[in-house]
């Protein structure tokens, strides 16, 4: 059997109705830097380096529903963001433009929705 080639995940690309708007939200939320910007694509990187988050405008974007019911647009991914203080991080996320999801399945996790409707979890 051939040796597996080296594979490195360098980033995640997130579809949005407006790449610039969603990148701006995550820039405020995470404090990351815009490293590349085109009209329909923006990339953010953390200050210490590491995998990027990129945002791409999708003309046919359909906002996910969380939790999804039968026939609803399912989420295709969500970010897990570890925090030191759940209440402070939640307040920061809301001030940055997130909304708190109506359904909260765990006491030590807060599910928020970004402006494009993508759920993300803040957890201790």
CATH fold-level name of the largest domain: Signal recognition particle alu RNA binding heterodimer, srp9/1
How large a portion of the residues is in β-strands, by DSSP E?
A: 25-35%
The top level CATH class name of the largest domain: Alpha Beta
Number of domains: 2
Spatial gap, N to C terminus: 42 Å
Q: What's the helix-strand series?
A: EHEEEEHEEE
Summarize the biggest pleated sheet: 4 strands, mixed
Highlighted features:
2,3-Dihydroxybiphenyl 1,2-Dioxygenase, domain 1; 19% helix; VOC_core; oxidoreductase; four-stranded mixed sheet; 8 strands; 31% strand; Signal recognition particle alu RNA binding heterodimer, srp9/1; alpha/beta; 2 helices; 124 residues
What would you note in describing this structure?
- The longest helix is centred in the first third of the chain and has 12 residues, at 19-30.
- The model has no long low-confidence stretch (mean pLDDT 95).
- The chain is an alpha/beta fold and 124 residues long.
- It has two domains: 9-59, Signal recognition particle alu RNA binding heterodimer, srp9/1 (2-Layer Sandwich), CATH 3.30.720.120; 77-124, Roll (2,3-Dihydroxybiphenyl 1,2-Dioxygenase, domain 1).
- The strands form two sheets. The chain has a four-stranded mixed beta sheet, with helices on one face.
- It has helices at residues 19-30, 86-96; strands at 11-16, 33-38, 41-45, 52-57, 79-82, 99-100, 109-113, 119-123.
- Strand 3 and strand 4 form a beta hairpin.
